């Protein structure tokens, strides 16, 4: 989901800023509340970190989806059918070394001739469509509601209250992170001066014996970063700078009532105009890496000796750019879903979402359209650690906990790479009614623009993992309907019988089955076996 995860005060912030509270100790649930599956006590190796979502719980004691096992024992040399997976996101680097051979091409369209050859309304849509045009930054939806100034809008007061709270919160984050970055920079300079070199090592820092208070504090700061897996204060400064960039984006664009982000010439509140944007489906800036990361999880070229293996082979990725750095527009999403359906996608991945949606009916109608046309929509649950049975999130296939408009819409929560009480990612939303399955979503390694790779976390990463398994099912068992594929994903998963920490709050411990409709985490090996037995 393309939303900024809440930035909380870390132990380091507590070390530097007295106003920022310290982090609570992690308390595991008692051993007797964990099932009989052995718990992995050693840290993940570098190979395991890059591939954990594909590993097997029984063999590797890591809660992956048994993808490698499925290829080794079930798929082997079988030939499957090509499956088109539409990724509605921020754009995809279609030239990436690990993606360029799995990108969908519209064979009915002649490139760059300025003619709508296939007469679908979109000119030169060779690899998908870009509904955003050249736009990148955008406001959040509740900020757009305030910017319209219609105080009679029933959600205006709620939006104003949320705006006031968020603005103060992010101004506080900005002040704290500015102070942290300053103090780290000072510490780095002090250590470099004392050691008479800028490329000092962990051993150099550990060897320092001093009664100088400033230097001692600098050593303490450096040791904090070493203990968190970083090799240098330069890395720490880079991480803080990246966080500050997110905070500044939030303040300058997402929460800025005067910012005008939509520049494609289209009225987002008028559904009568549909054919806007352009055929450039790539990210507008390198930092717009979300869609590329999602695409790699689904279908990065397997066994090519580069980067990472996607979950699915036999996949063509259709790139639909409709998710900005901010909240997506309902109109763009509704039309993106319909574009995917009308142009041959059998699976849609939606790693985006928001909590205000003025035209949610447009999107729900599009979801129903996908269902009627046998297209599976895989939806990220969201990253706020909340119960979706108690708060509406968009997109969805139902109003609240009411009847669903589609039986091909599946919502996915995120798992951590370690089995036990902490298996549910603290950021992951959940819900016994509104979340269907869980899948690997934290600390996931995948493709990012310009032939690079990175680790990211979110239900945004869990959804494409499931989309990849769905693509395997649709490839090797193409006679199954989208509704049957959804049922296979839910019924064939591994049941987690343990109690788990919910929302990252160690005091909130519940049975895993209370958080998700299926009570299970997706498993590719089991899913293919079940699919093979269905008519």
From TrEMBL:
The catalytic residues are 89 (charge relay system), 290 (charge relay system), 460 (charge relay system)
Gene3D superfamilies xrefs: Peptidase S8/S53 domain (3.40.50.200)
Q: Per the UniProt entry, what species is this protein from, by scientific name?
A: Algibacter miyuki
What InterPro entries does its record include?
Pept_S8_subtilisin_bacteroid (IPR017308), Peptidase_S8/S53_dom (IPR000209), Peptidase_S8/S53_dom_sf (IPR036852), Peptidase_S8/S53_subtilisin (IPR051048), Peptidase_S8_Asp-AS (IPR023827), Peptidase_S8_His-AS (IPR022398), Peptidase_S8_Ser-AS (IPR023828), Peptidase_S8_subtilisin-rel (IPR015500)
Q: Would I find Cell cycle among this entry's keywords?
A: no
> From which residue to which does the signal peptide run?
1-23
This chain's protein is named S8 family serine peptidase
Q: Which Pfam families match?
A: Peptidase_S8
Family according to the record: Belongs to the peptidase S8 family.
Q: Give the record's keywords alphabetically.
A: Hydrolase, Protease, Serine protease, Signal
Q: Where is the Peptidase S8/S53 domain?
A: 80-492
Look up the domain of life of the source.
Bacteria
